[in-house]
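anyone else get weird line breaks when pasting these?? whatever heres mine. first is seq + tokens for prot A
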Amino acid sequence: MLSQRTRYAIRALLHLGDRFGEGPVQLTEIAETQNIPSKFLTVILSEMKRAGFVETMRGKEGGYWLARSPDQITYGDIVRATRGSLALVPCAARLAYTPCDNCISEAECRLRAAMLAVRDETANILDRMSLAEKLPVDEIAAQ
């Protein structure tokens, strides 16, 4: 499951992607529009700057903007930059691996094998989806 930090980062970068090429976007605009606490958003955008996704400028006319075009930033990039996990079970996580408490034999566990495949396929899908894509929200929500 994606962490709150990862979900906020994706929403903030999507907002900046929608405003790409229009100049700096104020933190308060992103926070209010995306319903993200300002203090947490400041930390997240600092991480996104270190990851090379965001540029900033201080001052009255300052703000945040994408460092690259939206089609060059994928959901997978953002998940990895926020140390998010795509694993549905702890033993399938790459960065936060933890053996399952009641596992008899991890090497023979078919559930783990299935969840590793799900994790890898999810990563492949997210690596193909960029911030530039306008997904049909209404159609997806109805499914």
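and prot B, same format (seq, then tokens)
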Amino acid sequence: MKPVGVAGPVFVGAPPRKGVFTTSGEGSVWFGSPVPEIASVLVRSLASCGELEWGRTRLAVRGIALEGGGPAPAADGLVELETLTPVVVKHESRNLLPGDEYFVERLAHNLAHKAELLGLPAPRGLRVLEAGPRRRFAVRGAPRIGAKVRVELDADARFVAALRSWGMGLDTIQGFGWIR
């Protein structure tokens, strides 16, 4: 498990078209990690490169900005999180969607594993409050299937802050599970 998250490019003014990822001349990509050493390497690396390859698209790097991970809860307790990109969850090599048997169990396991890697208490009481439609992407020829979610969980505030820099579910390094 890699403590790195990526949110796929969001392009300003890109016209939506069904079944096609559209682009424009202006956009942003977000990278994050709850591990400061990794985050600092990301910043240094991005600052020194002039171009990123995103699939078959070349993205010119015009600048970088360091942002906080969003509003962290003031204290431990119940929190709602919503993803900007689909969450990928699997059980025995089968893609799961919210509402499928084992989805909540496997996502809770993923979150507990992330907490363990960071030395933090595992979140409890995970509930899916809302789910978007099924989305399918091909990443290096392999299918990634998931859905955006809005969840509620009881968690340590430090874990919530870390999750905002890492994402929920699997394949966060490929742009999935990024938290809004």
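btw re prot B: The longest strand covers residues 124-131. DSSP finds three helices and eleven strands in the chain.
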